[in-house]
Specification:
There is one protein chain. The protein has about 180 residues and is mostly helical. It has two domains: about 55 residues, no CATH class; about 120 residues, no CATH class. Helix content is about 50%, strand content about 0%. It contains ten helices and no strands. InterPro entries: DUF4116 (IPR025197). It comes from Cladocopium goreaui. This is DUF4116 domain-containing protein.
Length: about 180
């Protein structure tokens, strides 16, 4: 069994590969943002070992979502807060898979997620995946997102052309950047 770990170096050394090593940290280390985020990056279950008052600190919870999108699913107190969800998705779009279903139906919310990570389109409600105003920014962020668009959009020659133009301009931009 582990003993309580009181300094950051010892915590980092003992915490390697341990899912919930934060449970063995001293009270002081459990309040250290660097230690918390490292633990949350390993596993969302580390949240249960945090001091309860820290669960209400939005900025810390947003950083937790950035480190590990699964953390959002363990924060029911923020699940209904659209502003918090939007900020979380701006940090890690893949957290869209862990938000309340009503937000997966919202073009505004999904758009925020796909701007950060186009592949988060796969977690949007089918109606939103049929919205060109959401799909095209997703494709601009990650060309592979086009595969998650609704079949109706994938088969639309105009949308397919717009997606191809976006992908081509990105590819040309990358080749120019490599030449410089």
């Amino acid at each position: 069994m582990w003993e309580t770990v009181g300094d950051r170096q010892a915590f980092n050394a003992q915490g390697q590969g341990r899912e919930a090593a934060i449970q063995f940290a001293s009270k002081e280390l459990k309040r250290d943002p660097e230690v918390l985020l490292k633990a949350l990056g390993r596993t969302a279950s580390a949240l249960r070992f945090l001091p309860k008052d820290l669960w209400e600190v939005p900025e810390l919870m947003l950083e937790a979502v950035k480190a590990n999108p699964i953390c959002l699913s363990t924060m029911p107190w923020f699940q209904e807060d659209e502003d918090f969800v939007l900020m979380a998705l701006a940090r890690n779009g893949m957290a869209l898979q862990h938000v309340n279903k009503k937000f997966q139906r919202s073009a505004k919310v999904v758009l925020e997620a796909v701007k950060q990570n186009g592949l988060s389109l796969q977690f949007a409600h089918p109606d939103v995946r049929a919205d060109a105003d959401v799909v095209l920014p997703a494709v601009a962020q990650n060309g592979n997102a086009f595969g998650y668009a609704a079949r109706l959009l994938r088969n639309d020659p105009n949308i397919a052309f717009q997606a191809a133009v976006i992908l081509r301009s990105r590819a040309e931009g990358n080749s120019i950047a490599r030449q410089v």
